[in-house]
Write a structure and sequence with these properties.
Layout (H helix, E strand, L loop, with lengths): L2 H33 L2 H9 L3 H28 L6 H17 L7 H9 L5 H29 L9 H23 L1 H11 L5 H18 L3 H28 L6 H15 L10 H10 L6 H42 L2
Helix pairs in contact: 2-13, 3-4, 3-6, 3-10, 4-5, 4-13, 5-6, 6-7, 6-9, 6-10, 6-11, 7-8, 7-11, 8-9, 10-11, 11-12, 12-13
Length: 339
C-alpha cells in the first residue's frame, strides 16, 4: 500500500475513534439526564456561591502557572529555551486542540510539536513531556491515597475497594513507566535488549531518546526537590479548586473526601473512551458521591464545574491561537506591502 493510502487509513481510524468516543459520551450523558432533571442541575449552578467560584478560579490560574514553572525547569535542564509563559500558552493551546480535533490528535502531538519547534529538539521535548506527565501522575496518585486514608468517613463507603483498586493499578502503571524510562540502569538495559530488533534507522533515535531520558535520572538533588515541590503544590491547588467548587454548591464534603474522590475520578477519566471524560466523569462522580446523601443534581453540577474549568482552559488556548494567527497575518501583509 502506498504512503497516501496509509495516511488515509490512519485519518479514517482517528475519525472513527473520535465519533465512537462522542457516541459513548452522548449515551452516558443522555442516560444520566433521563433520571436527573437538567433544570435542577442548572439551578444548582445558578445559585452557586460567587466568592467560592472566584477563589476556585484563582487556584486554577495559580496551578497552571506553577505547572508551567515546573515544566520550565525540565526544559532548561534539556537545553531548551522555552520561557514559562511560552509553556503556559502551549498548555492552553493543547487543551483547545484536544477538544477541537478528532481522535485525540490535538493533545500530546500538538504539545510536542509546539515545544520542539523553537529549538529543533523533538527528542528532548518528548522526554520532558513524558517525565513531567509521569511525575504529575505519581504525585496525584500518592496524594489521593493519603487523603483517602485520612478521610474517616471512607470506612463505611461501599466503593472504597474500587477506589483502592483504581489507585493501586494507576500506581503500578506509572511507577513502572518511571522505572523503565527514567531509571538509568534499567532504561539502558531495556534499550540494549530492544535495539537489535528495530530497523537501523530507528536505533539511533532510540539511543538518543534513552540518553536524554538518562539526564532526568541524573538530576541534582536541588532541582529534583524543586520539581517535586512544584508538582505537589500545584496538585494541592488543584484539589483546593475542587473543594471550593463543592463549597460553592454547599455540598456536605470535607477537603479529604473531595481530594480522594476527585483523584480517583481523574484516574478513571484517563481511560480514553470519551471526549475529555464527558459522561464518564459524571457517572464516576455519581458512583462515589451518592453514598454521602448528596442530591444527584448537585453531583452532576459539581462534575459540570470541573468540565467548565476544562472549557475555560481550552477557551484561553483558542484566544491565543486566534491572536497568533491574526498577528502572523498582519506581519505577512506588511511584508507583502513592502516594495
Amino acid at each position: 500500500m502506498n504512503e497516501s493510502g496509509q495516511h488515509d487509513r490512519r485519518s479514517m481510524k482517528k475519525r472513527v475513534a473520535f465519533f465512537l468516543k462522542l457516541a459513548i459520551s452522548l449515551c452516558i450523558i443522555t442516560w444520566i439526564f433521563t433520571w436527573i432533571p437538567l433544570a435542577g442541575v442548572w439551578e444548582a449552578l445558578r445559585t452557586a456561591k460567587p466568592w467560592a467560584w472566584g477563589g476556585a478560579l484563582i487556584c486554577w490560574g495559580a496551578r497552571l502557572f506553577l505547572t508551567a514553572r515546573r515544566t520550565r525547569l525540565l526544559t532548561r535542564h534539556q537545553g531548551m529555551s522555552l520561557r514559562t509563559m511560552d509553556i503556559f500558552r502551549i498548555s492552553a493551546v493543547t487543551s483547545f486542540y484536544k477538544l477541537a480535533l478528532p481522535g485525540g490528535v490535538g493533545g500530546g502531538l500538538i504539545r510536542w510539536y509546539k515545544m520542539a519547534r523553537p529549538d529543533g529538539k523533538p527528542i528532548e521535548a518528548f522526554n520532558v513531556m513524558m517525565y513531567d506527565r509521569v511525575i504529575n501522575a505519581l504525585v496525584t496518585i500518592l496524594l489521593g491515597a493519603v487523603f483517602l486514608f485520612a478521610d474517616r468517613s471512607v470506612t463505611t463507603h461501599p466503593y472504597v475497594w474500587t477506589a483502592l483498586a483504581v489507585l493501586g493499578i494507576a500506581l503500578v502503571i506509572h511507577a513502572g513507566m518511571y522505572l523503565v524510562a527514567f531509571n538509568g540502569h534499567l532504561a539502558g538495559w531495556v534499550t540494549r535488549r530492544i535495539a537489535p530488533f528495530l530497523p537501523m534507522r530507528m536505533r539511533d533515535s532510540v539511543h538518543r531518546l534513552a540518553s536524554c531520558a538518562d539526564h532526568f535520572h541524573q538530576l541534582d538533588h536541588v532541582l529534583r526537590i524543586k520539581v517535586w515541590s512544584y508538582a505537589i503544590t500545584g496538585r494541592m491547588l488543584n484539589l483546593l479548586m475542587y473543594y471550593l467548587f463543592a463549597v460553592a454548591l454547599s455540598l456536605p464534603l470535607g477537603f479529604a473526601t473531595v481530594a480522594w474522590v476527585r483523584t480517583v475520578v481523574h484516574l478513571i477519566v484517563m481511560i480514553p473512551i470519551t471526549i475529555s471524560g464527558l459522561g464518564l466523569r459524571e457517572g464516576a462522580m455519581l458512583l462515589f458521591l451518592s453514598p454521602y446523601g448528596i442530591e444527584p443534581e448537585h453531583i452532576v453540577a459539581f462534575s459540570m464545574m470541573v468540565f467548565i474549568a476544562i472549557l475555560l482552559h481550552a477557551g484561553l488556548g483558542a484566544v491565543y491561537e486566534i491572536v497568533h494567527a491574526l498577528s502572523k497575518g498582519r506581519i505577512g501583509g506588511m511584508r507583502r506591502a513592502q516594495p
